[in-house]
Amino acid sequence: MSKKRMVNATINGREQTLLCDNRMSLLDALRDAAGLTGTKEGCLTGDCGACSVVMNGKLVDSCLVMAAEAEGAAITTVEGLAIGSDLHALQQAFLAEAALQCGVCTPGFLVASKALLDRNPDPTEHEIRYWLAGNLCRCTGYQKILEAVQSAAAQLRDNPR
Amino acid sequence: MLPAQFEYHAPESLGDAIALLKQHGDEAKVLSGGHSLVPLMKLRFAAPAHIVDINGIPGLDYLKEENGVLKIGALVREADLETSDVVASKFPLILDTAKQIADPQVRNRATIAGNLAHGDPANDHPATMLALGAEVVIEGSGGERVLPVSELFVSTLTTALASDEIIKEVRVPVPPGKSGGAYLKIERRVGDFAIVAVAAQVTLDESGNIASAGIGLTNVAPVPVKATDAEASLAGKAPDEAALEEAGRLAAESCDPTTDNRAPAEYKRAMVKELTIRALRRAVERAQGGK
Amino acid sequence: MSEITSESLGGIGQSVKRKEDLRFILGKGSYVEDFYLPGMVYGCVVRSPFAHAKINGIDSSEALKVPGVMAVITAKELEGANLSWMPTLAGDTQAVLADKKVHFQSQEVAFVIGETQYAAADGAEAVEVDYEELPVVVDPFKALDPGAPLLRDDKEGQKDNHIFNWQAGDKEATEKAFQNAEVTVSQSTHYQRCHPAPMETCGCVADVNPGTGRTTIYITSQAPHAHRTVLALVSPLKEHTTRLVSPDLGGGFGNKVPVYPGYILATVASLTLGLPVKWIETRSENIQSTGFARDYHTTMELAATKDGKITALRVKTLADHGAFNAQANPMKWPAGLFSICTGSYDIPNAHVEVDAVYTNKAPGGVAYRCSFRVTEASYAIERAVDLLAGELKMDPVQLRKKNFIQPDQFPYTSVTGWEYDSGDYEKAMQVALDLVGYEDLRKEQAEKRAKGELMGIGISSFTEIAGAGPRKDFDILGLSMNDGAEIRVHPTGTVTARFGVKSQGQGHETTFAQILAEELGLPEADILVEEGDTDTAPYGLGTYGSRSTPVAGGAAVLAARKVREKGMKIAAHLLEVSEADIEWKNYQFQVKGAPAKAKTMAEVAFAAYTNAPPGEEVGLEATYYYDPPNFTFPFGTYICVLDIDNKTGEFKIRRFVAVDDCGTIINPMILEGQIHGGLTEGLAIATMQEIRFDDQGNCLNGSFMDYLLPTAVEVPNWDLDRTVTPSPHHPIGAKGVGESSNVGSPAAIVNAFVDALSHLGVTNIEMPVTPWKIWQLLHEKGVA
Q: Per the residue annotation, which of C369, C400, C498, C547 is the catalytic one?
């Protein structure tokens, strides 16, 4: 049988022990073992960013991180952005600006945008575009996503969380 | 697709990692950034029976200047280069390069050592490290050795590393006073491998002439190219358009591009010339004090 | 009582926030891949590495030994149930699993079911197939050579690789016009094979439940009812006990219209094992085996007077359909709506001819926002018009204006038989020209040219055709392309409405609620829109070809008006007047001449269940299946401005102005997003996408490493504006707009590239236009 391993990680602030197939990517571990299906598979090869999560404070493609590598790590997924029913400013902005259509790329964009604003609260349009170069979207043409990120950034600068 | 079965090892010291590599030979692969290896495994183009994950080994993530040398530990990520003051101030060529590799997600995991060890002429740091005259510190079961990067690349995807050796550190000499570098890349789309890229590093003497130049070429030959003829042609010359033009011409002659999914060979060769000229021009500007 | 307005209701024209977004931003969407059923197992397809090869044998014995593998299905197992081949939406047949030979690289050869996706993948690797390679046909022109290998030797009566010849217009009159023409131009172009690659790949979770005797399939289908009917036609499943659920879909763009072998295989596996089976394809499988788009080799010719009046259009196309004819076109229209290629112009003679051929490549052809081959048609005419402008040394704006169908000519019947409903082409063009500052740009271009700098301005003034379609002529596999709306108003004044279309991101939960809010006088927030569950939704042909607003939107309005009709009777009863004294005004039922005496729809709804008029049934609901009288004809003008590095060929799109006219706009904010998305797809096609094969039929770019999608870095700021010319026949004047931006943009971009180099004598560049192609031209002309 396929080898299994236990991976201990703190996911969205909660300590969890996940039973993983040895070969599992962090993405599969989050979806299949932790039941957090918000993070998506889009391409298998780390080209689309739909699987973006924050691991130990860094934005990564979870499809290219083996679950085993996440042992002891702190992970944030899209499910960890809202505090209870309190949406993150980015989530509110995406909603207000209609920055999504089919929604598959959206978790990745939210996580990636939050990682940007956490380190650079006042990014230029150029900086936002290059920061999001690892996240692909087919529906929106990116424009409303950019506007939403800018709007959220302004909101957060005025009202830090 | 999903990877084939493998045994996963997470050694806690470099010695343990090397012992595992020695034990399993060609059946083992080092996992550091993993962003070259894991896609290959998922597409089942690679199926190593043993994965040796070195990410948990302490003390390999240093990035520091010491005795006139920039020392980049095995676990330094591309993103670390982007936020380093010493890289920004003394190695604009390295900063340029790091910023043009893939995308932010990949840069948070991909390592410089891995970028060299993969032996892929399409990777960006080989050309840059060739231009900067860097060396790699290799550790294996036979001990430690130091190798100039110019001796690292043997053939496509094959380096001078034995199967039980790991690049422990990349060492880049700090360029003297009036130095500057630049990395220019033409790509099909942001984040892709280069159609052509050129790394140029120059040092000017007191009279403003080129004292020395380093030129590395990405993805235009089976291995990364150090354009030695082009480099030599610049020594002692004033950095005028004629000199740059000649260096560009020689660089274009020193490459051996193929026609592929990215572009025809003829275009690549022409772009080696054009990008060499432009990269040198920018390197000279930076050496003269511009940004 | 406070006034009810369109704004207060969230009705038509309001930029209401999308209802569906909350679950997506929380990561709580339910896509097919998110369904986990108890006991669920996993399927993995074994695919052919060869493009054309005999299968001498398949050995599953090693695969069955792999731990966790539960079963292996090959054509042999399917033959008994007559399932190894299935009908395609185009009326051809396609192998579910290859039996005697494989026809394209990546074709399905076996299906392995495993307890985990890992076991299934390991099992798939272990299936041994004995292939004997056959000569490969990759070039569609060579496919018609006498003596070319016969690809469909499985089809009785098939003597060669030709699939069909289709024509429209008047061949002789067009021939005559060309012979007598003062000027003619001709261009051959390849609208390259590309792929829509939605962010979610295709897949399903099939649950043929042995206990309940019911089948539930969660499936990535843009047309779940049609898929259910097809399944019932080919398998033992019956429609009344088979439920297809298209849950949240992660983009479609036509990729999720065909019935793929994986769906059948997962269903058969579930039937065989008595367990739910999940099959989700990888991105590589998606790009290499599911419905591609375009691949039209077209020669377009225009005949004109020397002052630029077009007298004839001739278009001849060789269509590469791949291994099977699996394109999703209305049955009687094998080249779709391609004959819209007279575009926005009043052309007195036209002849359009399409020959389709088989090749050893994946099947498909109709996808990627093509509006049924309208992308190909629009590209052909908009490039041809620029070609003519170049030949006549005329400004492409002037040439277009000279030939536009004029507003007073509508409804306009084209010589290829389309009755355009409404249009005002010059008005839209002028808005675009003003927005982009056309005159100044031409001046700037002249100045730059003098200095050897390259700058291009490209225009596309497209008219496209949406809303399939009138059932007299439009069906898919015989199923009429009409759609239903079912509305139920509850006693407490909220609404459940269900439709036979299926959003893959278009925002139907919001836009259809807005239409109903406007028609029913109830707040959009109180209207729940449901789609995608065949157990509950009224029959429909799904969402593609921009048909939702024209067809299902029409059904929504007419069903709502049926509700209002009954509401009138109830209101009259409540207000104790005769029905003739009631009018629907200010979003309520008012007594004529005494507006203070009124009942809201909410009040009427409650009465429907508590105080229905004598003789009337209780309740307040209606169903309507809409047969549109005609298509709709959205249009617009796009202008692209770009700058080119004259040494490297690299370019930057400086500005892109898009003026669209889709008639009545339901939600401007949603509209903008759709246009941005389509423009980005057009940019992708024009500058970076192509599915390429070598001469052995090996696909050269089957993953996102080499099949490229634009990122936020490549796209310019999209500058949008609009005109509004309602459709006279649509119940609310709406035309639909989903695909216009992909229809119109590639020509605008390519016209800009050609324009940038036209002073060097360049008249064409093939898509995708890449820096190296530009450089090659500059090099040839001695500039680089």
A: C369
